[in-house]
Every structure is written in structure tokens, then in C-alpha cells.
Specification:
340 residues; alpha/beta; two-stranded antiparallel ribbon; 46% helix
Length: 340
């Protein structure tokens, strides 16, 4: 483990008012999104889609790192250049998703546990040889009647932090992603309470497992009301609830926080991040960035639809969303940008 290199990589991942692009969807998830748009669900089509993303002109102006899936990190451009190298050539750090997905948790109805620790040490070594410099693991927390339970929180936090320790041992920066889901009718305050509980449990484990705070990135949810909650709080209310929660629970030594979009619309994900960076300017000890998937990719996917002729327009849409989120990091995003 080279602590200095871990720190440098973690800082680089959130440097320069840029963020991360999550393009690590499982094949099943990618196929589902393709099917909704009438796109063939094949490995060849997934390769073409990912090549469209990684070759987007100017993407490195807004994106510091890209999270890949196992299939993607083994794929190449049509000219034979591995995707990891294509990203590095334009200044984007390649990363890799390493969890095996969230499964039903035994004896905990309605709750999930993320699997994938078996054999992880060897897999991390292999991914590093393929060019990955960071990794990602997602834990899923559901809000409901009587949940999340203490057992679910502690089991997921322990697995998440064991992954993080193995990453740092292998020289990879871990993205620690404990996601409190938006599903449900719970109010903003309930999400805030659960998010604080989740973060407290995760950082307790981080101290116990000796994970280096300066060599990690946190990828949390924003504090939001449930999707079916009658009261949908304003952008500023979400910004205040989210950053105050993070200020209470995230150590200052963590170099960056990169939000997941979690099903938010592209515009709301940008607007909420923008409000946080305006309202708390100069008061946050860590960089507040983004690590979005659908909130950057979806408009481009809807334009591309599997057709080569649509690639330039799709790439323009992808760049636009990345540019909007870089502006949000600076507190310079506004709705007029959506018409530019």
C-alpha cells in the first residue's frame, strides 16, 4: 500500500470542479434500458454504446474518472484500444465496480445485503493490472415500516468497509457508496435521520478496519423525500438537509463526496448540487462533487438509440449534461443552461 499514491488519486478524482461518470451498469440493467428504447440487447451493442461515451469530445473537461463494469474494462474500441487506455489518454481515471449486487438478506424481510467479498483480493489485483486506479461498492438501504434494522445497517457497513480495506491494500482508492433509496412515501426528515444513522455506522467501521480516510471517496445519496411523499421539498431545502447531515457525520479528512443521482431527473440532480455549492460555499471541508449515471447518460441514450448516425448528437447531449454538473460544482448552474 502506497498511502501517498492513494491520497493523490483520491484528490485527483474530485479536482478542478469536475466529477465522476458512473458507466458501471450491469449487463442486465443496461439491457433493460436498451429494451425500453428498442435497442438490441447484445454485447456488440453495449460495446458500441460505451465507445460512444468514452470518445465524446471534451469529456475530460468535465469528468475526472469513469466507473466501468467488468465487461467494459475488458472491452476495446473498434481500433483495438482498451477502454481503460482510451479514458486515460484524455485524462480520465478508470475505475471498476467490484460488488456482486444486492441480494435479499436472510432473516431480514424487505432488506438487502451486498455480496462480492469472496475472491475480491485477487480480483482487485487483476483490475489494477488492467488499468483501474479506483473501485466502487454499493450498499442499498431501504426505508420502510420497521426498517432499516440495526442488523442490516451493521452487516452492510462491515462488508462495505472490508471492501475498502482490500482496495487500499491493492493500491486502489475505494468509493464507499451507502445508498439510502428514494423509494417510499417517507418525508425529508426521515431520510435525513436514516442517512445520519447509515453514515455513523459506516464511519465507525472505517475506524475499526483502519481504512485511510484521505485515500477514499464517499458516494452517498442526497437527503430527499420519498418518491411518493406528498410533500416534495424545494431545491434549497434538500441542499440544506443534505449538507448539514454530511457536516455532522463525515470527517474532514475525507477528500471528496461525490453524490449518486439515485433516480433523480438530470435537471434536479444538477440544481440540487448547485444549491449546495452556493449555500455552503467556504463552509465544507471536503469537495462536493457528482458521480452520476442516468443523470448524465440518459439523454444521450435516448438520442443514440443504437444508430451510428446519431452518435454526434448523443455525444453532444452527454457533454452537455457533464458540463451542467461541472457548473453545479462551481455554483454556476441555472435552468437557462438547459436551453443552450
Amino acid at each position: 500500500m502506497n498511502i501517498s499514491e492513494l491520497r493523490d488519486t483520491a484528490k485527483a478524482m474530485v479536482a478542478g470542479d469536475k466529477g465522476l461518470l458512473a458507466m458501471d451498469e450491469s449487463n442486465a440493467t443496461c439491457n433493460k434500458r436498451f429494451a425500453a428504447l428498442g435497442i438490441p440487447q447484445t454485447e456488440e451493442t453495449r460495446q458500441a454504446y460505451r465507445e460512444m461515451i468514452v470518445t465524446t469530445p471534451g469529456l475530460g473537461d468535465c469528468i475526472n474518472g469513469a466507473i466501468l463494469s467488468d465487461e467494459t474494462i475488458h472491452q476495446q474500441k473498434k481500433d483495438g484500444t482498451p477502454f481503460a487506455k482510451a479514458l486515460m489518454d484524455v485524462g480520465i481515471i478508470p475505475g471498476i465496480k467490484v460488488d456482486a449486487g444486492a441480494k435479499d438478506m436472510a432473516a431480514h424481510p424487505g432488506e438487502k445485503i451486498t455480496e462480492g467479498l469472496d475472491g475480491l483480493r485477487a480480483r482487485l489485483k487483476g483490475y489494477a493490472q488492467l488499468g483501474a486506479r479506483f473501485a466502487k461498492w454499493r450498499a442499498v438501504i431501504t426505508i420502510g415500516d420497521g426498517i432499516p434494522s440495526r442488523g442490516c445497517l451493521e452487516a452492510n457497513a462491515h462488508a462495505l468497509v472490508r471492501y475498502a480495506a482490500l482496495c487500499q491494500e491493492a493500491g486502489l482508492v475505494p468509493i464507499v457508496e451507502p445508498e439510502v433509496l428514494m423509494d417510499g412515501s417517507h418525508p425529508l426528515q426521515r431520510c435525513g435521520d436514516v442517512t445520519e444513522q447509515v453514515l455513523q455506522t459506516v464511519f465507525d467501521q472505517i475506524y475499526l478496519q483502519r481504512v485511510i480516510l484521505e485515500g477514499m471517496i464517499l458516494k452517498p445519496n442526497m437527503v430527499l423525500p420519498g418518491l411518493t411523499c406528498p410533500k416534495q421539498d424545494s431545491v434549497d431545502e434538500v441542499a440544506d438537509a443534505t449538507v448539514n447531515c454530511l457536516l455532522r457525520k463525515v470527517p474532514a479528512a475525507v477528500p471528496g463526496i461525490a453524490f449518486l443521482s439515485g433516480g433523480q431527473s438530470a435537471e434536479l440532480a444538477s440544481a440540487r448540487l448547485n444549491a449546495m455549492n452556493i449555500r455552503f460555499q467556504g463552509r465544507m471541508p471536503w469537495a462536493l462533487a457528482f458521480s452520476y449515471a442516468r443523470a448524465i447518460q440518459q439523454p444521450a441514450l435516448e438520442i443514440w438509440k443504437g444508430a451510428d448516425a446519431n452518435v454526434p448528437a448523443a455525444q453532444q447531449a452527454l457533454y452537455h449534461r457533464a458540463h451542467c454538473n461541472r457548473a453545479a460544482r462551481r455554483g454556476e448552474y441555472n435552468s437557462a443552461m438547459e436551453n443552450s
